[in-house]
Amino acid sequence: KKDCPDDEERLERLLIRDFVLISTNTLLRVGEARQLTWGDVAKTQEQVDSTGKSVQLVYLNVRSETSKVRASRQVISRGGEYFTRLKARQQNTERHHHVFSMDGVKQLAARRWQKHWNNLMLGIGLEDWKKRKLEWYSLRHFGVTCRAQAGVSALDISKLAGTSISHIENTYLKYSQEM
């Protein structure tokens, strides 16, 4: 509140924070995430992983009409707690309301998304983010790269990300070897 006394601006920043965390965990494309409705969030569920740690999963339905490749898919991912937190903060959470919207209906304007991205990049000290061509879509690339480096199979990543195995192999596994 000290750094951002305006309630509306603060809520928008919190929405952006959850967008970042959800995007990197679910590997959704930017357009898929922005068109996500609360009806697409099938459920969140707590589960214990192989190490005994409790993890909150989210089950999402990506509709064919919102997918770049026009194919529906189900995404099961960590990060359910971000949806729970976001839903508790928002007032418009009926099935038809957009998850990443301040009123459930209107999308944030492109200039607002850009303003938040600029502030994020500067806030984390990446002055060269434009030269490096970092953008919202980079969150998806980051998530895929993390999965590949963690040893998740190209088949599993391709199903989660809604892209071909060859794309995963040619883009991300090759990159991992060069690193």
Radius of gyration: 17 Å
Order of helices and strands: HHEEEHHHHH
Computed structural class: alpha+beta
Number of helices: 7
Question: Which residue ranges are poorly predicted, with pLDDT under 50 across at least 5 consecutive positions?
Answer: none
**Annotation, overall tally of beta strands:** 3
Tell me about the largest β-sheet: 3 strands, antiparallel
Beta strand % = 5-15%
For the biggest β-sheet, the strand order reads 1-2-3
Percent of residues in helical segments?
Answer: 40-55%
Q: What's the pLDDT, averaged over the residues?
A: 92
Oligomeric status? single chain
Shape: globular
First-residue to last-residue Cα separation: 41 Å
Provide an overview of this structure.
The chain is 46% helix and 13% strand. It has 179 residues and is α+β, with helices and mostly antiparallel strands. A hairpin with a 5-residue loop joins strand 1 (41-48) and strand 2. Helix 1 (7-26) crosses helix 5, helix 5 (138-149) crosses helix 7 (165-178) and helix 6 (154-161) crosses helix 7. The longest helix has 20 residues, at 7-26. It is globular. It starts with 6 loop residues before the first helix and ends with a helix. The mean pLDDT is 92.
Quick description:
The protein has 179 residues and is of the alpha+beta class.
Characteristic key phrases:
alpha+beta; 179 residues
